[in-house]
Design brief:
The protein is of the alpha/beta class and about 170 residues long. The protein has a single domain, classed as Rossmann fold. About 45% of the residues lie in helices and about 25% in strands. It contains six helices and seven strands. The protein has a seven-stranded mixed beta sheet with strand order 3-2-4-5-1-6-7, sandwiched between helices.
Length: about 170
């Protein structure tokens, strides 16, 4: 059984989304996919389409690039939620120059109100070289802080590397 909050971390193309989808599917509940990506170009459109095809049918999709807390608060307890991903959500807010503290407070409030178990996918961006520009360094630091806050609230934290899950906190169902 999944805890109320699960955090799945990993690098780009690590297999974290597929692993998270498996966790949600394994609950036997209705599946809600909370998508945070914004499509600004053909490459991203293709990436989203690829994710949808791999995921298959049977998912209710909510596209919400900013106010995920509001969406989470409306989901019933007979569902399991995959929020994919916290990294895109944070990027959306940073590029829109939104107040990150306010955005995070909304996310945390929505998680507290959500009746369904939630699996959040997020990138671990702190393992590479120090970025060469101010925006990238601010993003890396903000992502690291967000991941730490989510991990502190999560009952299960898994790091996926090369498709292999490594449990950092809790126990896999």
């Amino acid at each position: 059984m999944l805890p109320g909050l699960t955090l799945v971390l990993g690098g780009a193309a690590s297999g974290k989304s597929a692993f998270a989808e498996g966790l949600v599917t394994g609950t036997g509940r209705g599946r809600t996919y909370l998508a945070t990506a914004q499509i600004h170009d053909g490459e991203m459109r293709g990436k989203v389409r690829n994710h949808q095809e791999k995921r298959g049918h049977g998912w209710r999709t909510i596209e919400e690039p900013f106010d995920v807390g509001r969406s989470l608060a409306t989901i019933s307890g007979d569902q399991a939620v995959l929020l994919d991903c916290a990294t895109m959500w944070l990027s959306n807010h940073m590029l829109a120059e939104n107040d990150l503290d306010e955005a995070e407070a909304g996310l945390m409030a929505g998680l507290a109100l959500c009746a369904a178990p939630v699996v959040i996918v997020s990138n671990e961006v702190g393992l590479s070289v120090v970025p060469d520009n101010v925006l990238a360094r601010k993003f890396r630091d903000a992502q690291g802080r967000l991941n730490q806050r989510l991990a502190s609230k999560a009952g299960l934290v898994v790091n996926v590397v090369a498709g292999l899950p490594m449990v950092l906190k809790g126990t896999l169902p």
